[in-house]
Design a protein that fits this description.
It is built from 21 helices and 17 strands. By secondary structure, it is α+β, with helices and mostly antiparallel strands. The strands form four sheets. An eight-stranded mixed beta sheet has the order 6-7-9-8-14-13-5-10. Strands 3-4-2-16 form a four-stranded antiparallel beta sheet.
């Protein structure tokens, strides 16, 4: 047994990790079943008490695909032809004739619209410089520029869609680019088709909003904190909120001269949560820049508090709170988002922006974004910036703050420079956001499919039944044909399937119907490996060799055939995953996981089991 000690430890460690990876799935299902049995206030109370555990279990559970969970799948197409039209100058009948011809051809072709567009110009012997750039520009230069603008338009559309989906509150959405101009959006658990259509096709709203004075923001936060501490809870029903709002009085009456935020350092977490329930969730920036920080798990709690009637009554009428679009920083593995107090009314909208460009400042070697406005925007921008020097101007897209730079001085001419990005990638993202209001390429819904919950349940049942039937048939065959060896291979088969689901959960993969097909196929391949081994063992036993020698020889001789078969299957799955899309990738992923698990269970687990039995003095193992 000593020589197998390392293998036994590896088996137990792998098994323990598998249980650990799948435990959140079990926990999430337990929470769901518990909520189903509760009603009204009991359900709300249970969710509030277990919110953090439920979120963590949901984030780490085995994800189900749209075909199993139900939801909506939408294929969007970015209208690059509209972008080409908007970028062109001196448009005439010839230009529109070419553009309309490209539109018709694009409906039946997956080729790039830019390439189709260029081919039409070549066929008619017309230079692109007639409509784009200067007369001295070569066609190749113009095409590269148009392709760059096309890619940026798609990136912009993806960013806007992702931002809206995040705000809509869809869990585990999938947003990916398809080809040169399409975007696939999968929204599990969503059933309202009209809302989704409006969400995805609505015009992006880019706004510039001034941040309120930091002192007013922090005093408002303190006022909320005092009201919550006075009431002794973080939630109340509507009638209670209205009565509390009357007792609360004005903002000024709730704020003392001693800042609560200044006395938090010496508090224990328990004291802080009891005495300062809002400041326990919302941590003001110590430098007094105006924003506060909230952990990802507390965002929903803060939203519920800010939506209460008594809380709304003490927030200044011209101010609203907005979340940052992405985390501000990560501390001890926890993401923290920014909470900004901004003026409700926008100073300007994105309609005035003509161009934005991410680049590196040659003087300080720092990433910056330059922004150009039209004549109307330039006049307003000069007035706004001149009247608000040293104040912060937030760039807000669909009610999410993407950046909040400080106005350093009056900006004339409509050309601004935004600093403070950590890297050039962040600068490129801000460029995309700023261009959301300039030269928009409309997004059209090409396909929208809804998978109802009943279909999802039927799919889950069908997939589960297919796995169970496959298991039952294979296990019965193995036990009847190989007797004791068949029992051991059946146990390894169960462990093999456990490993596949555990790896999917650990790497946040998604289980789909094609994925289940891959698992069923890998089950068959796992049995194939056992059959090869057992047949080799039987051959050795028939030749008169001892049981231990026959087992060792059987595994040695079968290894090359098993390894070659699984390796070629793995590479086939790898090719399918690399070049396939959607369902094909789901099938290939579980197939590759199954192949890896097959080698481990068929070669290591079953062999260690036989050697353990032999070391314990078992003199006979029946292989049929």
């Amino acid at each position: 047994m000593k020589k197998n000690r390392g293998k036994i430890l590896l088996i137990f460690a792998t098994f323990a990790l598998s249980i650990y990876s799948l435990y959140p799935t079990y926990l999430a299902n337990s929470f769901d079943n518990e909520i189903i049995g509760l009603k009204g206030s009991d359900s709300s109370k249970y969710i509030e008490e277990n919110e953090e555990s439920m979120r963590e279990a949901k984030n780490n559970r085995l994800k189900l695909g749209l075909d199993l969970q139900g939801g909506i799948r939408v294929v969007l197409e970015v209208e690059i032809s509209k972008l080409l039209e908007d970028l062109a100058k001196n448009k005439d009948d010839q230009f529109y004739k070419i553009l309309n011809s490209v539109k018709e051809e694009a409906q039946t072709s997956d080729a790039s619209i830019i390439d189709l567009f260029y081919q039409k110009f070549i066929q008619q012997n017309i230079r692109l410089a007639r409509y784009y750039g200067s007369l001295r520009d070569e066609d190749e230069v113009i095409i590269e520029r148009l392709k760059s603008e096309s890619e940026k338009a798609i990136d912009r559309a993806i960013e806007i869609v992702r931002n809206r989906v995040d705000q809509y509150g869809v869990s585990e959405p999938s947003i990916q680019k398809l080809g040169s101009r399409r975007i696939i959006v999968e929204l599990p658990g969503v059933s309202k088709e009209n809302e989704v259509r409006q969400l995805l096709q609505g015009t992006a709203l880019l706004e510039f909003k001034l941040m309120k004075d930091p002192e007013i923001i922090y005093k408002t936060i303190e006022a909320i904190d005092k009201l919550l501490a006075k009431n002794g809870n973080l939630s109340a029903d509507s009638s209670t909120q209205k009565s509390e709002a009357k007792q609360a009085g004005t903002l000024e009456s709730l704020i003392s001269n001693d800042s609560a935020a200044a006395n938090l350092v010496d508090k224990t977490p328990e004291q802080l949560q009891k005495e300062h329930p809002f400041l326990f969730l919302v941590r003001p920036n110590q430098e007094g820049s105006g924003e506060s920080y909230v952990s990802e798990k507390d965002k929903s709690k803060v939203d519920r508090i800010l939506s209460r009637a008594d809380i709304k009554s003490i927030i200044p009428s011209d101010m609203s709170f907005y979340w940052s679009s992405k985390q501000m920083f990560i501390n001890e593995g926890i993401k923290y988002f920014g909470l900004f107090g901004l003026k409700k009314n926008a100073e300007l909208t994105g309609a005035v922006i003509e161009d934005a460009q991410a680049t590196i400042d040659p003087n300080f070697n720092q990433p910056i974004v330059t922004m150009e406005m039209n004549s109307e925007g330039s006049r307003e921008w000069a007035r706004i910036t001149g009247a608000n020097i040293k104040k912060r101007m937030a760039i807000v897209l669909d009610n999410s703050v993407f950046s909040a730079p400080v106005i350093q001085g009056k900006i004339t001419g409509g050309r601004s420079q935004i600093e403070g990005m950590e890297n050039i990638d962040e600068a490129h993202l801000l460029e995309i956001i700023l261009k959301a209001g300039a030269l928009p390429a409309p997004v059209e819904i090409m396909e929208q499919r809804s998978v109802g919950p009943s279909l999802g349940e039927d799919s889950i049942a069908a997939g589960t039944n297919s796995i169970l039937i496959a298991f039952l048939v294979i296990i019965l065959f193995m036990i009847m044909y190989y007797s004791t060896g068949g029992v051991i291979s059946s146990i390894s088969l169960l462990i093999n399937t456990l490993f596949i689901f555990a790896v999917l959960a650990a790497f946040k993969g998604t289980l789909t119907l094609p994925g289940i097909a891959g698992i069923v196929l890998s089950i068959g391949m796992a049995v194939d490996a056992n059959v090869l081994i057992y047949e080799r063992i039987r051959e050795e036993l028939d030749s008169g060799k001892g049981l231990r020698i026959s087992v060792d020889t059987g595994y040695t001789k079968a290894f090359s055939a098993i390894f070659d078969a699984n390796l070629t299957t793995f590479f086939s799955g790898l090719i399918l995953y690399q070049f396939g899309t959607g369902p094909v990738q789901g099938f290939a992923l579980t197939l590759m996981m199954g192949v890896a698990a097959n080698l481990f269970t068929a070669i290591i687990i079953t062999k260690v089991t036989f050697q353990y039995l032999l070391d314990r003095g078992v003199s006979k193992i029946n292989f049929g």
